[in-house]
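Hi F.,

I've been meaning to write this up properly since the lab meeting, where we talked about keeping a consistent format for the predictions we share between groups. The idea is simple: the sequence comes first, exactly as it goes in, then the structure tokens exactly as they come out, then a line or two of notes. No screenshots and no reformatting. I'm using this chain as the first example so we have something concrete to point to.
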Amino acid sequence: MIGLILLGTFIAVIVIAFVAITQPKLPDAIILSMGVGLAAVVLFVLFQAPDVALTEAVIGTGIGSLIYLMALKHLGEQK
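Output, unedited:
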């Protein structure tokens, strides 16, 4: 059962990452990259690495995406 969840999550990461890099709109790509980070959190939990999962959730997915969105908003105001 865990093997199927791992396989499904790996496939989800690949599909979400591919969709993220093919998005023409940057906010959509940033939000999809958050999805990749959240799927990575699930993988870390399944691999029994909760400390790495928490770090990825907070820094990688949360703060990193927030910085990207704030920078995008700031650059949009300068045009």
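Notes:
The helical segments are 2-21, 26-46, 50-77.
The mean pLDDT is 91.

If this format works for you, I'll send the rest the same way.

G.
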